[in-house]
Amino acid sequence: MRVIVILGRVLDPSGIVVKGKAGRIFVNREEYVLQPADRCALEAALRIKDAALAGLRPSQDVEVVALPRGPLPDDDVLRQALATGADRAVYLVGQVANLPYTDDAAAVRVLAAAVERLGGADLILAGATTMDTGQGQLGPRLAEALGWPQVVGAWHVAAADGRVQAVCQSSPLLVGEEGGGTSYVTVEADLPAVVTVLPGVLKLRYPDGARLINVYRGVGEVAEGLEQWDVADLVDMESLKPLLERRGQDFPPERERGVRIDGTPEEMARVVADALRQHVGR
Amino acid sequence: MDASYLDLLMAQQEEVTEAAGGGGGIWVVADVVNGTVAPVTLEAIGAARTLADSLGAYVYGVLLGEGVTDLAQTLYQAGADGVRVADHSSLAQFALEPYLKVLSDLIEAEQPEVVIFGATAQGQGLAPRLAQHTGGGLIEHVTAVSLDEATRTVQGAFPIYGGEYFEIAACPEARPQFLTIEPGAFSAPFIDSYRKGEPTPLEVEPAEPAVRVLGPAEDFEPSPVPLVQAPVIVAAGRQAGDFEMVKRLALALGGQVAGDRGARDAGWIGPEQIVDVRGVTVAPEVYVAVGIRGDTFHNAAIEEAKFIVAIHPDPDAPIFEIADLCLEADPAEVLPALLEALA
Amino acid sequence: MDFTFSSEHVALRRMIREFAETEVAPLAAEIDREGRVPFETLKKLGEIGLLGVCFPQKYGGMGAGETGYCILMEELARVCTSTSTNVGAHIGIGAMSIYLDGTEEQKQKYLVPLARGEKFAAFVLTEADAGSDAAAIRTRAVREGDSWIIDGTKTFNTNGSFADIVTVLAVTDPTLGARGGITAFIVESNMPGFKVGTHENKMGIRGSSTAELIFDGVRVSHENVLGKVGEGFVSFMKTLDLGRLTLGAAGLGGAQAALDWSIRWAKTRKQFGQELAHKQSVQWMIANMAMEIEALRSLVYRVAWMVDTGQPFTQLAAMVKLYGSEVGSRAIDTALQIHGGLGYSRDFPIERGFRDARISEIFEGTNEIQRIVIASNIFRQHGVRIRP
């Protein structure tokens, strides 16, 4: 079974300071980290591989392949994936406009072609959201491009026997419940399918030390898993023009702290629930 | 003139008749929850109305479900000029493929300029696939819109880095332009209860959903994740009362449980869950402090949290200086109501 | 001259930092208060291969070299000196002695499980009357056919109370002294006669175990002689030489933590209407701290590079330990001053850092010994043999 994981990088938010009043963003420390949701997707893929190896399912060789979410100036993210346990990673090189802002529509063209060149896959996992674009459309767009079923916003993923099962937060839309507390629901689809994984839902494993050293030194079996392809070989570069254009930034109003909510417990609860729903926004 | 005559006049004036065909328009795909139109849909119609007025276009609503035909009136009352209804048993529950089929056929037939969804589970599933299918552009989680009238392009602002600031994007050429809007970001439109109209039923070809809902995940509990990686944290202090309620709140929000030193002393949490500059410093998107008084060590550890809600009975609790929303109340009273409201 | 870290070391540091902040830091105060060794942390470190960070992969290690090991010590000490002490005793002197002097068989049998974190190591040297004067040890090993019987008591031993494999120095020929009369042995702690005595009640690094070890007729096979009979003292000194470097790295981590805390406090604390950061006296303290840390950092990683490229390092390693321990002590002392009364409180980590730092000038060769080593090396290069 081939599981593809889509990985992207993002500026470490702890190195960024936003001064809303001045309308400026200061990057004090330019360090990149893996997108947190993508890290959960990788963790989910590796757990599927672990489960297969542990023989919890009839023996099925699971191959985990990492692909980049968009144009990357270096292959660091892919090496991290290999160090953490992926079997292969493909670094796609080539000029794509609007680096680092990736238009998901353009990225999907490249990814769909990459999947084809890999010879297809059984499951594609991606983060459900990206910190620096605030968008979650890559996974579903890719699913549409490939014509596969999709599960958006998974808390847990398991795959075997030609099927993928995921746990998602239930909503009345999904199961027609009439309230009763937030609960989780299990959904299932036949493979091949695309599943997007939420950030912060799985305890992430650390890379294996020896694999880490070897992949960055470019030695050993783990380094052999890193390949490099030219985007120009996959798609017509002209067709990669992004659909979206950045038109600037806006800054939220000064954060208002100490806002007291009054009323009966029910009234207070309603205000808080609305606000929480907005901010938790998964 | 008596009131009833006035009513009659108003009613006659507000019968909406649709302009003949023509395509284009600002479309809103409705979310139906528990048999009613979700507030985000009404907000979307309000936003659509503003765009449509500037563009000289019409606002159309789309209802999908079973037994939803009567809900069309709600959309008219919110400002829709036309409503399409796909009322069919196969659409009773939201499922991707059946809904996609209806919508993609509709989009092909009507060629909308803009299609707006609520950023709900339904919208987040449908919008990207439709955008990909039609070759349109999509901006998700939009909290504000403006219009580039020259190119008839919608500019959407959306939060990034957990709301630290907003990016503005637009789709200048590809059509339709798809948007998903954040619930509560746009104001509810004026509901004109006299406005009504005749919705157009749509032919529905049942399609098989590719994703099967197996049922409630009874035993599922989110795995414990290190606090520094958790986007949502619910923390308990000595005044939290029933710790089980705190755990249930965390579950409801999909968050991790934490606490201050007092919670550790009470034996509720482990050492790796103490939120304190001497313990773990956190920067979640949401931090709910239940019964935490908030001393310097605790408050310094949550400085970087994006949104803080504090519940404590003492009005002078230092936590209220840094919390965004402050509830001077006994957690034992507020938590049950909060869990109810979140359901 | 390229002063950049290679990409694998950058990636290694990133991983260790995340580990340190997520797994080690939350426990630091508690293990100090309770005086317990964080076995759960050591297990996690072992699982990802960090307990064999510097050993070649063919021995189950990570192959990151001395540089990788210094990075590990620095990042761990930055959040918890007790943890870095546990790790340092295991890797840097315990397992290292087998790596430096073991036969291939011994390495396969003992080093591999240690590097994999499956077993723990300790390095057993010090006795009640033999501290700095290491050659004055009295533990005796007597040959009996194909085995040796070891008798004696060792004190102040780190990790010995829970180690599975210990390397111990014993006198095999009392007439010969350090040159020819002392031998090193590999002892497994489950061998009959090996006992753990009293535990030390220490001022600092209370999350590490320091105990008395009793060898009561412990019988080991002749195959467990580490290195050559009679050459134990020399080989142990070699191991200690290398261990010094990483102690300096730990000092660097502690100093960096002291600086980070101080900056944070200076930014927050207001007196006389201004944050401390605006007070010149505090600015100078911070500047001095930062300067010493930079100098130490350059020294640590330069010497690590020299080790990794096979260059002689004894004198420099002693300098690293000496300077690292002193910089660490000065930094935390300054941090304590900057934090004022709060720094003195046991509810705040500064006082723990203060207690933890003090030992670094004493163990692994006191700073006085380091100075002798450095001076001896210097004078020997100029043709003068210092008489001890």
Walk me through what this model shows.
The complex is a heterotrimer of chains A (282), B (343) and C (388). With 282 residues, chain A is of the alpha/beta class. Chain A has a single domain (2-256), classed as Rossmann fold. Chain A has helices at residues 36-53, 76-84, 104-118, 138-146, 172-175, 209-217, 220-224, 231-234, 265-280; strands at residues 2-7, 9-11, 16-19, 24-27, 32-34, 63-68, 88-93, 123-127, 150-160, 163-169, 184-190, 193-197, 226-230, 245-250, 259-260. The radius of gyration of chain A is 20 Å and the shape is globular. In chain B, the strands form 5 sheets. Chain B has a 7-stranded parallel sheet, sandwiched between helices. In chain B, strands 17-16-18-19-20 form a 5-stranded parallel sheet. A 3-stranded antiparallel sheet of chain B has the order 9-10-11. Chain B folds into 2 domains: 4-201, HUPs (Rossmann fold), CATH 3.40.50.620; 227-342, 3-Layer(aba) Sandwich (Rossmann fold), CATH 3.40.50. By secondary structure, chain B is α/β, with parallel strands linked by helices. In chain B, β18 (286-290), α8 (296-301) and β19 form a beta-alpha-beta unit. Helix content of chain B is 30%, strand content 27%. In chain C, α3 runs antiparallel to α7 and α7 packs antiparallel against α8 (314-339). Chain C has 3 domains: 7-119, Butyryl-Coa Dehydrogenase, subunit A, domain 1, CATH 1.10.540.10; 122-231, Beta Barrel (Butyryl-CoA Dehydrogenase, subunit A, domain 2); 234-381, Butyryl-CoA Dehydrogenase, subunit A, domain 3, CATH 1.20.140.10. By secondary structure, chain C is of the alpha+beta class. Chain C has a 4-stranded mixed sheet with strand order 1-4-5-8. Chain C has a 4-stranded antiparallel sheet with strand order 2-3-7-6, covered by helices on one side. In chain C, strands 9-10 form a two-stranded antiparallel ribbon. The chains are: A alpha/beta (282), B alpha/beta (343), C alpha+beta (388). Chains A and B meet through α3, α4, β9, β10 and α5 of A and β3, α5, β8, β10 and β11 of B. β15 of chain A pairs parallel with β20 of chain B.
